[in-house]
Amino acid sequence: LLPDSGDLRACRALVHAHHGRDAAARRELTPVLSGVVPCHAVTSQVVACLLEAHLADIAGDSALAHTALLRALDLAAPRRMMRDLVHWSTRVSGLLVRNRGRFGEHENFVADALARGRIAQEHSGAAALLAGEALTRSELALLRDLPSLLSLDEIAAAHVVSLNTVKSH
After folding, report:
1. Ranges of H-type helices in the chain
2. How many other CB atoms are there within 10 angstroms of residue 127's CB atom?
3. pLDDT per position as a tens digit, 34-76
4. Residue 88 has what DSSP assignment?
5. 78: which DSSP letter?
6. What's the CA gap between 45 and 62, in Å, rounded?
7. What is the pLDDT of residues 127-142, one digit of tens each?
8. Model pTM score
9. Is residue 110 within 8 Å of 80, Cβ to Cβ?
10. Residue 60 burial by CB count (10 A; 0-12/13-18/19+): exposed, middle or buried?
11. Which of 13, 68, 20, 16 is nearest to 46 (CA)?
């Protein structure tokens, strides 16, 4: 229903990457990253750059991964968009840690983002211990759908998770 946009393509690329279809994710990202199909929201452009870094790291292309991270930082740093950086994927967080000292003017922003990410992880881990392994929001949302008339496949598709994830929850 939505017209073609960079935002929509970034979302499609995320879904493809989630399902292990890296080539399809790259096809969706190419026009977004080249500027042929622009994004309406800066967040979508940051996500596209972070996904490019993620996919490049998987492929072993460290130069492309670093370039994509720099593009994401150019967009995120002036807006203090730290959450997108540190909570996006463990692979991206790892790239940020491994490449410290290579981000130039964004070095302090990366250090702040990583510090805030560590604090958030410590708090979520402590809360889970105090609550006796409390469930995440996504786990609770999925569990609420189990007594519905939806099939397990439909629940998995609605939550963008695998059938095995639904069964394990």
Report:
1. 6-18, 22-34, 42-59, 62-76, 82-86, 90-98, 107-130, 137-145, 152-159, 163-168
2. 10
3. 999 999 999 999 999 999 999 999 999 999 999 999 999 999 9
4. S
5. G
6. 20
7. 444 444 566 777 777 7
8. 0.69
9. no
10. exposed
11. 68
Torsion angle, CA of 146/84/121/106, rounded to 10 degrees? Answer: 170
Tokens of 63: 């130069």
CB atoms within 10 A of CB 115: 12
Contacts of 142 (CB under 8 A, 6+ apart): 155, 159, 161, 165, 166, 169
Three-class SS state of 157: helix
* Structure tokens belonging to residue 78: 């002036």
Would you tell me how many other CB atoms lie within 10 Å of the CB of residue 121? 13
Going by C-beta distance under 8 Å and a sequence separation of 6 or more, which residues neighbour residue 150? 158
